[in-house]
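REQUEST ID: PR-0412
SUBMITTED BY: lab tech R.K.
PRIORITY: routine
TASK: structure prediction, single protein chain
INPUT:
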Amino acid sequence: MSFDTPSKKPKIIWLNVLVFIITSTVALIGVPLYGYFYGYDWGHLIATVLCIGYCGMSITAGYHRLWSHKAYQANALVRVIYAIGGAFAVQNSALHWASDHRVHHGHVDDNDKDPYSAKKGFWYSHIGWMLREYQAHRYQDYSNVKDLQRDPVVMWQHKHYLVLTLAANFGIPLLIGVIHGDIWGMLLTAGFLRLVISHHVTFFINSLAHIWGSQPYNVKNTARDNGFIALFTFGEGYHNFHHHFQNDYRNGIKWWQFDPTKWLIRLLSVIGFANNLKRSDDTKIELAKAETLMQKASQQLANINLPDKDTLLESLKAEYDSYTQQLMDFYDVKRQWVNAHKKQLLESPEAQEIVHKYQELCEHIQEQREKWQAFHQQLKLKYQAV
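STATUS: complete
OUTPUT:
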């Protein structure tokens, strides 16, 4: 006779559990105790910050934007630096990390398929998903990263990941400690403390960046834009934009938005170490913002009782259609202008006409954008007063 056994929780991944427990314990207890008895100086702080930056940028610029999304291309030297930095960050190999991340984007918020679905709660998306074998069937499935398997740097790091991780996490702090004259102090600060901070900074992108912030580009998933989170995640806090335009090498698209990863990639391209930087078209970005604003306004109007609600909805739709049509016209003329520029035909009468129309549409777009935003603001004030 046989009985059906009740479903069990996925097995605990004890290696991950022990790594998190040991590193956190040393960071929370060992680091303060050593500081109390022996003290730290500016050298410890600077080394720790620089090591956090190296780990963080290796993940954001390397694992994330280069390998997961192919947002740009980098030469072998840069890729090796990223690969070592990724091992230093102890976040699995680039091959495994990118595979997980591509599944996340393909099935975002799907509790069964998204490896770190935010809909399962903060704890799960932040760290819980790494403590049990929730998707054990995928652990050796790299069918979605076949392109990365052709990258010799990625495969070198994947094959030697454990050795590289141990060498980087003990070797780099040890070397800095020898130079500085305090080996134990550097092992604690640039080693353990740095690793704990680096871990949770990255984990915040999976958790907080799907919970806290605005959604200017897309309301179809939980991803949020948050400039405050961007300050601690090397620019990854503009997550709503990223989930809608995931192949853009930027996350913060405005010049003033804090995105050091974007600035690093741009610098690498200037000195010839990177190329093929991908950017989303400005018009498509504006269309995404307009569509999202339309969806939000329509939903808000539909949920309140106003005597002229139908009229307002019609007006809203008319303004939206007018604005998006202007954007599409602008996009078409811009494409013609770029083509004329490429063909060096800007002196011809046809090109001059395109340039004139382009400039004219630029002015119309700005006027229409302001009109659209003003109309939406009036609606917002009206339904807030209800």
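NOTES: The first strand starts at residue 73 and ends at 74.
REVIEWED BY: pending
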